[in-house]
Amino acid sequence: MILRQHRGKSNEGNALLVSIVTMTVLLGLSAAALTSSIASKRQIGAEIERTRALYAAEAGVASAMQQLVRGQQPSLGSVGAPSAFASGGFWGGAVQNLDKSWTITSVGTTGLARRALEVTLTPQSGGIYDNALFAGNSSGDPSYVMKFGGTKTSADKISGNIYSGQNVVFNGDATIDGTPRALGLVSASSSTILPEKDGTPRAAVQGQSQPLPDITGMHYATNNDVDVAKTFKAAKYASGTGGGKAWQMPATDPAHIFRLNPNDRTANTSTTAKDDYFLEDPYVALHTDPKSDGSDPFMIQLSDPAVTKGATQGNNKVYYIDGNLWVHNLSSMSMEFASPSGGVQITIVVSGNIYMSDNLYLKDKNKDGIALIALKDPAVKDSGNIYFGDPTFGTLEHMSAYMYAENNFYDNNLSATGSAIVSVDGNMTAGNQVAINRDVGKAHSKLTVNFDNRISTKKIALPGLPKTTATSSGLKISLWREVAVP
């Protein structure tokens, strides 16, 4: 007998029910997944719009900074008429604060997204050539004061920003057309620099530290075009038009613009620890400039035109001197570089001191530029300084140069009657202190510094200089944050 198994109708119904339930669940999951996918796409789209809005806000900040570089009042558009950017735009404004910083508010828009940025740009003390006067106070002297004074026609006048690694004091009628900065305090008694009620100049920035320029990192002892001391090993002892006998190079050599240890100035050279090189051309006729105004200066030719046929092989070079540099002649009051068609652009670096006893002028104030740098010699205590004034007569009235002293600026008899007025077209930067005494009794030797911004604005480029750290507008970003949309 054969036994057969029969499937009942109830079993078939159960299978159908399970299938229906399964399909229902799967359809539900699919619907949920589709809904989630649509929501995710919307969320991703919204995030993309928010990111684009942030980019638009950043574009607004960049636009404002570019306008400031050009010297313009920033204009970013308005909420009703934003400036176009990509698929959206930006609007906002810029306000200059009392300390000459700028606060920029930029709102970026894309679709329905809105995001806002607030950026503060502060005046930057910047690099070695971004200030009229800079004293880093590297010694950390808590009593250091950068002083300005004088009354009426003898009052000091500074055009450009200044920085002191400790304190700044304005007395009498001294004025500044720029921002005074100090790690310590800035005080003033003069109403002409717009002091607040507490005596602080309106534009002063106090309690701010500025980094020292890394000039020694340039390694000039090896990174130079003309190593003057090494070149002078082939020098000849001979007479020159500037007076006396000295070690000299031929007119065809770029180093011929220096004379080593002239015998008519032993009163000066006998007091120094290193060899002394004098900036003067022994192959050019002596001119005394009796008015001391640069109208008839003792000229310096970077090249001998008769030999080089107009070529200037001595231009656009870094001259390095292991020794001291003097701008000092017993007969002439002023010196000036002859300017080739493209202008004079040279840098003179010394491992020692620089002594500025006579005037130094530029022939072409638009194209010419001279940088003078004094570095410290670890083996010589008195080094890395720049001295102003004739040690005997005190006569010094004008210097056209960008000057850096790794150590200090000092005076050499600067308050003598011959130096009642001293002016600088360029700048003065000291790693340590500007320590020039210009007060003797009731007399004050007036100091005028006119900041020459051609290096920081890249109108001229001198060889072998460290890169400036300031922006071309003299501003840096000190705050960048996202804020609520106004």
The assigned structural class equals alpha/beta
Q: Share of helix among residues?
A: 10-25%
Taken together, the total number of domains comes to: 2
Mean pLDDT: 84
Number of strand segments: 35
Oligomer: single chain
Notable features of this structure?
single chain; 486 residues; alpha/beta; 2 domains; 13-stranded parallel sheet; seven-stranded mixed sheet; 15% helix; 33% strand; disordered N terminus
Description:
Strands 5, 7, 8, 10, 11, 13, 14, 20, 23, 26, 28, 30 and 34 form a 13-stranded parallel β-sheet that branches. By secondary structure, the protein is α/β, with parallel strands linked by helices. The chain contains four helices and 35 strands. It starts with 8 loop residues before the first helix and ends with a strand. The chain folds into two domains: 18-124 and 475-483; 133-451, no CATH class. A hairpin with a 2-residue loop joins strand 3 (102-110) and strand 4. The longest helix has 61 residues, at 9-69. Helix content is 15%, strand content 33%. It has helices at residues 9-69, 228-231, 266-269, 305-308; strands at 83-85, 88-96, 102-110, 113-123, 133-135, 145-148, 157-159, 162-164, 167-170, 175-177, 180-182, 186-188, 205-206, 226-227, 236-239, 245-248, 258-260, 276-279, 298-300, 318-321, 324-327, 334-337, 345-351, 354-356, 359-361, 369-375, 386-388, 398-405, 408-411, 421-430, 433-434, 439-440, 443-444, 446-451, 475-483.
